[in-house]
Amino acid sequence: MKLSFTKMQGAGNDYIYVDNRQNIVADPASVSRKISDRHFGVGSDGLVLICKSDIADVRMRMFNPDGSESEMCGNASRCVARFAWERFFNKSKDEFDLETGAGIKHIVIHRDGENFKSATVDMGDPILTPAEIPVAAASNKIQIDGRDFTCVSMGNPHAVTFVDSVQTAPVHTKGPDYEIDKIFPRKANIEFVEVLSKNHAKMRVWERGTGETLACGTGSCASLVACVLNEKTDREIDLDLLGGTLHIEWRKDNSHVMMTGPAEFVFEGTIEI
Fold first, then answer.
1. Which pLDDT belongs to residue 63?
2. Residue 253 CB partners (closer than 8 Å, separation 6+)
3. Cα distance from N-terminal residue to C-terminal residue, the chain
4. Which residue numbers mark the site Could be important to modulate the pK values of the two catalytic cysteine residues (predicted)?
5. What is the pLDDT of residues 201-229, one digit of tens each?
6. pLDDT number for residue 273
7. Helix crossing, 74-83 with 217-229: angle to 10°?
8. In angstroms, rounded to a whole number, what is the distance separating the alpha carbons of residues 102 and 99?
9. Which pLDDT band holds residue 83 (cuts at 50, 70, 90)?
10. 29 in helix, strand or coil?
11. What is the pLDDT of residue 90?
12. Residue 32 pLDDT more than 90?
């Protein structure tokens, strides 16, 4: 069977997107493992299925390169938003709801005439209760091998640690071990954050089930929350990632985290599955 796909990226976080409203992908875990391979497949940070929803305007399912399904991906949500805005709604609907494994997310498209500029995703409240993140500890602030972490869920588990420089952060030497530490019942995404000022920071991420990626939307949101909780930054920052910059705000009035950033088409293709 030949599968038509679209490759998109948001701040360098690249996924393969499939219009799956007709349920054409029967085994998404297997397809994700094959299509994500950067040597024998198309190459991506995973597979995203764009599906019908009974409770929102569109639904997103996201699979990692190892075949595991993730609850949420912030960068992918913006790409799904642009895909739907242009191809489902014909640019007639600038606000709509996206169903994800972490609940319904409201999205606003920012445009310049008929041209897409960026998208803002309401990522909702951060989860700080240890059992709900989940983290097997009495507090969401923990230590692993003497290193301090602040744990946050944005629908998926994150552990944020502060470093003097992201350039020298032990992303590859320690990230894989931190991800699967026994303190994380469902593993965790690991963020290394360098604070530059009260409204500017840098971050690198070791993603659960993937490895280092150029960006992570939920990880960016978790990083800002950790910055605020540790009195490192204000509630609104620009966060520099390897693949670009995201604007993140943790609103004081309703506690929602807002993420604004790009979403770009890369190419279309077909692959035999």
1. 97
2. none
3. 5
4. 158, 207
5. 999 999 999 999 999 999 999 999 999 99
6. 87
7. 130
8. 8
9. very high
10. helix
11. 96
12. yes
Q: Which CATH class is domain 130-255?
A: alpha beta
Architecture of domain 2-124+261-272 in CATH?
Answer: Roll (3.10)
Q: What are the domain boundaries of the chain?
A: 2-124+261-272, 130-255
Q: Which amino acid would we find at residue 11?
A: A
Average pLDDT over residues 165-174: 98
Q: Which residue has the higher pLDDT, 273 or 140?
A: 140
Active site members: 73, 216
Three-state SS across the chain?
Answer: CEEEEEEEEECCEEEEEEECCCCCCCCHHHHHHHHHCCCCCCCCCCEEEEECCCCCCEEEEEECCCCCEECCCHHHHHHHHHHHHHHHCCCCCCEEEEEECCEEEEEEEEEECCEEEEEEEECCCCECCHHHCCCCCCCCEEEECCEEEEEEECCCEEEEEECCCCCCCCHHHHHHHHHCCCCCCCCCEEEEEEEEECCEEEEEEEECCCEEECCCHHHHHHHHHHHHHCCCCCCEEEEEECCEEEEEEECCCCCCEEEEECCEEEEEEEEEC
Domain 2-124+261-272 and domain 130-255 have a common topology: yes
